[in-house]
Amino acid sequence: MISARLLRPIVAALAVLAATAMAALAEEANDYPTAARAEYVYGCMKANGETRQAIEQCSCSIDVVASIVPYERYVTAETALSMSQVRGNLGTQFRTSEQATSAVNDLRRAQAEAEVRCF
Prior knowledge:
The structure is a single chain. The protein is mainly alpha-helical and 119 residues long. The protein has 2 domains: 1-30; 33-118, no CATH class. Helices cover 84% and strands 0% of the residues. The protein has 6 helices and no strands. The longest helix has 26 residues, at 4-29. The radius of gyration is 21 Å and the shape is extended.
């Protein structure tokens, strides 16, 4: 039988490992800057009514999106959506780019999931 004296270091090491893993997951889930989250919620509220319920739903929505789409991919999708509105050759490049289309599709799938979970 293993003595308590031998188990203490093992339990302590497992506790440290678990805490480190939880901190890494929390950091990964919160990799979106506050300004990006606020901008998303603001736009979402404009589209869904400026009520207390909309704040809750839109906050939930960005949390779901952030859990699915890495921030760099989110920036790519937002940039592609914005730049695709530009007329002319520059806008066409963003509308027809495979990378931009893929990022936008990822964002739209995440937003659809957020719609199901939050609204």
